[in-house]
Each structure stands twice: as C-alpha cells, then as structure tokens.
Amino acid sequence: MVEAAELLTNELVTNSILHAGTDIVVEATHEPDVVRIEVSDFDRGDVARRRGALDDERGRGLELVEALARSWGVVRKPSGKTVWFEVGGA
Q: What residues pair up with 42 in beta bridges, in sequence order?
C-alpha cells in the first residue's frame, strides 16, 4: 500500500507541475487500512487521460492511478481542482 501511494502521489504531483503550472497542495489522510491522497492545484483546466505509445516517456500517469488505486476522482472547485485517490482496503 505504501509503495502504491508513493507512486501515485508522485504521478499526480508531476501532472500538476507539468499541466497546471500553479502552486499545489498535497493532503493525506488515513484509516487503519485505507490511505487517501488529494492533490489540488489552482488551474481550472480539465484533467485529460492520455494513452501513451509504447515508446513515450509520458502519458501514463492517470492509467497508473486507475490501475493501482481502489478508487479515484476529480473534484472541481471555483479556484481549481483536486485529484484524489485511495489505496488499501478491501
């Protein structure tokens, strides 16, 4: 669970840095068997899933989130957006 949370947090932070270009806020909460990470930025643009080609160095971040997280989503706010995921649990 820890390794998945670290990897997915890195992916979401990298996406915010590359695509939003704003300050970001990372929040983590946990219960005994579930970790929730939220990465917020101040850009109101859409979160777009890309399909990276086999030789692309980028384009797989949200695919990893979808594959490894038990759930994930996007919350739009007037000031930007928050992308969140949860790992662990049943």
A: none
